[in-house]
Each structure stands twice: as C-alpha cells, then as structure tokens.
Amino acid sequence: MKYYDKLIFELSRKGRTGYSLPSNPWKASTDGIPAALRRSAPAPLPEVGEVDVVRHYTNLSQMNFGVDTGFYPLGSCTMKYNPKINEEIASIRGFQGLHPLQPSCTVQGALELYYDLENALCAITGMHRFTFNPCAGAHGELTGLMIMRKYHASRGDTARTRIIVPDSAHGTNPASAAVCGLEVVEVKSTPEGLVDVNDLKPLLDGTIAGIMMTNPNTLGLFEKEIGEIASLVHGCGGLLYYDGANMNPLLGTVRPGDMGFDIMHLNLHKTFSTPHGGGGPGAGPVGVAERLEPFLPVPKVVKTDNGFRVLGRPGMPPCPKCGNPKGSKGCEESAGEVSGFLGNFGVLLRAYAYILMLGKENLVLAGKYASLGANYIKECLKDCYKLPILSVCKHEFVFDGLASGKATTLDVAKRLLDFGFHAPTIYFPLLFHQALMIEPTETESKETMDAFIEVMRQIAAEAEEDASILQEAPHTTPVRRPDETRAARQPVLKYGDLA
Q1: pLDDT tens for residues 20-31?
Q2: Which CATH architecture has domain 84-352?
C-alpha cells in the first residue's frame, strides 16, 4: 500500500491542524441547545496538516471513475461528455449571485432565460407549455402524474386510479405511480421487445388514468405501434405519459407531442448537458399538451408588456416597481407546488447554453449519432454476446450475457474496469437473465468505440480460455472485488466500525 492510499484517519497525529479560524467575538454559547442534542465529547475527527488533507482528497478523486477520465457506456443513463463552456457560463458571477426571492424586476435576464428555454423545449418535444419546478427525472414523473390526476379530478372522473406501465419500464415509473396513489397495471412485451397491443386492449376501461411509456424503450427499440397505442388509450379516456430518459436519439427527428403523448418529463441533466450522478444535481421539467396547461404547478414565468413575471409564488412580496402579483388566476386549478422555487437554475442554464450552442441542425445530428454508435457496437459484438432481439436499435441495446455462457454479466462488468472502461448497466431491464445494456452516447468517437469493442471481444475470449480471469476481476483497481451483497446489507460507514 502506498502511503497516501491510507485512510485519512490512519494519517492522523494528535495535535496537528490544517486550518486557522478567527476567534468568535460573539462568545456564542451552547446553553440554548437541549442537552440531548449536545456532544459530550469533541467529534472524533482526524488531526492532520493542510498538505495531508489536500493530498488525501486529490488521491481520492483520482481513484474515482468519471466521464472525464474514461468511456462510460451506462444504458438508460446517458453519461456523456458535457462541454466545459457550459460550466463556465453557469459560473458567471451575475448568475451565481441570484436569489430566488429577488423581485422580478431585478432578475429579468434570468426570467427571460426560463421563458426562452421553455419555448425551445416546446419546439423540440411538441409540448405546449413546460414547468421547470421538478428537480430531477423521478420528481418530474411524480409531477406529471399529479397533473394527470388533477385533470381527471377536474372532470369529476374520480374512478381513474390505475396506471398502465410496460414490463420493460424504468423502475422509477411504477415507484412514482405508487407515490402518487395510483395502482400499477403491467402490460407485457412482445418477443420483439415492444408493447403488446393485444395485451393492452383488455386493460383499458374507465379506471385507467393513463399509460407511462419510454420511447424508445429500455431495450433501445422504437415503439412502432405508438399511434395505435395513443388512439386506444385516448379512446378509453386516459392520457399518455412520456418518460423522457431516452430522448437523446429522437432529438430533431421525432417529437413526443406528435406521437400523441399528453404529458412528459425531460432529464435535462442527461439529454441537455449537466454532469450527473451521485444523486444530483438534476432537472426534470414537465411539458403538457395545451388542454393540460391549467394544471401545471406554480410558480411559473410569464411574459407581459412590462417584462417577465413569476406568477403563483406564495408569500412573494410584490415588487414596488413592477407590482409582481403573489398568485395567478389559474393557481386553484394547478397541481400545486412541487418545489420551493423554479427548479435548479444552474442546470437549466447549462441546458439553455447547450441547446443554443448546437442549434437546430446539430441537435438532429446528436440524435442520429446516438443511434449510429449503438448499432455499430451491437453489430460488432453480436457474434460473441447473446443478442436476443436482432432489430435495429436506437441509442442503446441489450445483450443477454456472453454467447459462451462461461462467465456472468457481473464478471464481464468487473473485468472491463481493468481496461479503463466503466461497466455498462447490468441486470436491467429484467426481461433477460444476464442483461448487459450498452449506450455509447452521441459524444464518443469511433476510435473510443473501437477500443471498447476490442476489449469486449478480448473478455469473451478470456471467458472461453480461463473464466477465472473474469471471476476474480478487477485485478488492477484500488478496490478489488468486494462482497457486494454484504456491503449493501451490512455497510461500514464509520472508521471506528472497520474492526
């Protein structure tokens, strides 16, 4: 073990400090804090010098795998490179210093950005209006379902308490539906991996609020029967919800609104450029068809003759200059509040910069390159990995493990780390026992994909010759192969618990 591979607690020496704080002129006391909430002894923190702290965190950062250090082909996650110019724009002092409770007249530029981004997303998706309040994709799903329920309730249609979800859906779909108080009804897939229309038809009745779909679905396949599906669901009085996690390959080519979807969310942190992972940051704006606009949550940005205003912000004092109102006429109809303010502004700003930078013509290319890369990798590897569905895919595809069956998908994923590639998504979707979902994203070069293909072929050959090479992998990473089940069920979260 290298010296700086040690835990920072192992570097600790009593009496060392890496900081200097000014004395407290207010002589603050802990007397007002209940005794049960006060420490009886100082926190057991490591005592190290500043240089050791800097080296500790720098070394930790170099142990981590990120999209800036290597290929990250996670299916349904779109871990693509994000242009650094967008980070610079989001760091401009004038943006960083904004506060969400400022009077509207002092933040006209930011409100104009909200307004223009909404128009851009409407043009891209075919939706009529968007709300930026949801802070992530699953939050957007919940918001969209709240809008769906509000719509049915406004018509006195209270029997619609069930939502249809395909068996290939993202796991957040049934989870969001359950949180929203809806009963999930599963519709099966055909052997070709698409929604089975014949299985769908008997499910449609007056209790169905709608259907949640991803198109292309989690197998990377375009739902060719979407026109008939939309007609059937609308015919029974339901609505169509579009999970926008797989929007990348459709950019500039197909719009969810034109397919018949009434509500959708977008993962701006996936499709439109924000580094994501580890729980955030995110943005899951929700778009709706025109008839559903009154049910959008508040607050929202509107354009008036006197500039831009924020409507429906409870408790917001009116500005003495512009007279910004506290509410709007449609607030009673809306789905209410889903977040304190207008979402994560920094994420929205990055998305706006990304869209402007690419423009209409290059957004179309992004979608085409996403599909081209996935099909290229699929065709180059289908002789040594099981390909259960042979049709052309969009941005991602799914193998069902090694063709030889001599090692598991987990073994393949672990071995990839030895070659500097992050593993694809494994064991999802649940339609295949040894699922290996690969998404190269539109930002990767042919050379990178060729290198990945070569390594995947080498791993398949190793499995044939000596499967133990895979079963004991990774061999070169700082952390080898932990007991993942035990780590999940009995996590060691504190240094003192290591023994």
Answers
A1: 888 777 766 767
A2: 3-Layer(aba) Sandwich (3.40)
